[in-house]
TrEMBL record:
CDD domains: EngA1, EngA2. Keywords: GTP-binding, Nucleotide-binding, Repeat, Ribosome biogenesis. The lineage of its organism: Bacteria, Pseudomonadati, Pseudomonadota, Betaproteobacteria, Burkholderiales. InterPro entries: G_ENGA (IPR031166), GTP-bd (IPR006073), GTPase_Der (IPR016484), KH_dom-like (IPR032859), KH_dom-like_a/b (IPR015946), P-loop_NTPase (IPR027417), Small_GTP-bd (IPR005225). One of its GO terms (molecular function) is ribosome binding. Belongs to the TRAFAC class TrmE-Era-EngA-EngB-Septin-like GTPase superfamily. EngA (Der) GTPase family. This is GTPase Der.
Length: 446
């Protein structure tokens, strides 16, 4: 499971700049839930063999009692609760403040692994400005410059060293059974995930149990249907109560992201009575970015009249147009309606995501596509596509070789994707196409 790092501190100390350094891109923000997590953003980063999730928070005032500062403090506490390690960012140039003492006191009482980061420390050779921060009682102050990228890699290494379970989990990780399909049920709170999961378990009459895990893990439930073994990863949090599972709807962005990344197939559940919200679109975008196979299911379909159904279908087409490849089903988990086709689509999506594509077939299809429609000429360059091969699975990756391929247009990329999807009957999985231009052996010669 990816470790989670939270950035906290008073306003304008450089948390967002540090966030962008740790994620290596401003585009790395993967969840910004309007109205729910104000000034709390989630991104992904990687250093060496370790991947991690970073949470950027707003200015933290632990004792705020009203207004927007109270809401921001609430979101920061949630981020700290979700984190495995906390980076407390202070401004070295402005010096120590009373608010820094309040935040330090909050972190000491919490007892979670924390690291004191002195930002804007460029050009401070003697380190005298850092000495006053030792009175916060959080140990050594680590100087960095988020704006200039100084000390970031070492800071991340030190933060990850505070998590002894990280390397232990990797060393003790058992071999996975490829025959088991990992299925994550994702969606906003109260869309019916609990009802759907309990319906599945009740229909199959399986003895389900909580697998060993920690508080940072999603709960996995093994079960079997029609001879196929599944591992259900529940983002709501399943808890055992006698022989009955009680689903606790507690929305956690981190758990949702981790569950999606750990799955083979994601069932994105929407609420027909609420339409497609910003949260739904953000979760769908992360599923696409993660490359996971996905099936869409609209729950509580029976609660809408004909006009409401038409408007919802139009909303899905507009707001989730980037998931056109995903099967769409309309169900009622409470009344157990429409659940059979969902299972069929999930198995088909998994099969598509692990599809093997022979190189001769890919190359033949590529050349036929070029003959049918030649790539557009850009200035003096006309891309020449020569051959293709498979570069990966889950999601499928097709690597195309040729000349001047950097001039391939997005429209032509979509044209090729459509041809490949049709040939291999790819349903419910993203398809990534990579272009590799052959080097010109005479480029460096006079």
């Amino acid at each position: 499971m990816k470790p989670v790092i939270a950035l906290v501190g008073r306003p304008n100390v450089g948390k967002s700049t540090l966030f962008n350094r740790m994620t290596k891109s401003r585009d790395a923000i993967v969840a910004d839930y309007a109205g729910l997590t104000r000034d709390r953003h989630y991104g992904q980063g990687r250093q060496g063999k370790h991947e991690y999730i970073v949470i950027d928070t707003g200015g933290f005032e632990p004792d705020a009692t009203s207004g927007i500062f109270k809401e921001m403090a609430k979101q920061t506490r949630q981020a700290v609760a979700e984190a495995d390690v906390v980076l407390f960012v202070v401004d070295v140039r402005l010096g120590l403040s009373a608010q820094d003492h309040e935040i330090a006191g909050f972190l000491r009482r919490l007892g979670k692994p924390a690291m004191l980061v002195g930002n804007k420390a460029e050009g401070m050779k003697d380190g005298g400005q850092l000495s006053e921060f030792y009175e916060l009682g959080l140990g050594e102050v680590f100087p960095v410059s988020a704006a200039h990228g100084q000390g970031i890699r070492t800071m991340i290494d030190m933060a990850l060293e505070k998590l002894p379970w990280l390397n232990q989990d990797e060393d003790a990780e058992p071999e996975e059974d490829d025959s088991v399909i990992k299925l994550a049920v994702a969606g906003r709170p109260n869309v019916g995930k609990s009802t759907l999961i309990n319906t599945w378990l009740g229909e199959e009459r399986l003895v389900a149990f909580d697998m060993a895990g920690t508080t940072r893990d999603a709960i996995a439930v093994p079960f079997e249907k029609n001879g196929q073994k599944f591992q259900l990863i529940d983002t709501a949090g399943l808890r055992r109560k006698g022989r009955v599972f009680e689903a606790i709807e507690k929305f956690s962005v981190v758990k949702t992201l981790q569950a999606i990344e750990g799955a083979n197939v994601v069932l994105l559940l929407l609420d027909a009575t609420q339409g497609v919200t910003d949260q739904d679109a953000h979760i769908a975008g992360f599923i696409l970015e993660s490359g996971r196979a996905v099936v869409l299911a609209v729950n509580k379909w029976d609660a809408l009249d004909d006009y409401g159904r038409q408007m919802l279908e139009r909303s899905i087409e507009l707001r989730l147009s980037f998931l056109k490849f995903a099967p769409l089903h309309f169900i009622s988990a409470k009344k157990r309606q429409g659940l059979g086709p969902v299972w069929t689509s999930m198995i088909q999506a998994h099969k598509s995501s692990t599809c093997k594509m022979p190189t001769p077939v890919l190359t033949r299809l590529l050349l036929e596509s070029v003959q049918f429609q030649t790539p557009k000429k850009i200035g003096p360059y006309r891309p020449k596509l020569r051959y293709a091969h498979q570069g990966g699975m889950n999601p499928p990756v097709i690597v195309i070789h040729g000349n001047s391929l950097e001039h391939i247009t997005d429209a032509y990329r979509r044209f090729l994707e459509g041809r490949f999807r049709k040939e291999f009957n790819l349903i419910g999985t993203p398809l990534r196409i990579e272009f590799k231009t052959s080097l010109n052996p005479y480029a460096d010669k006079d």
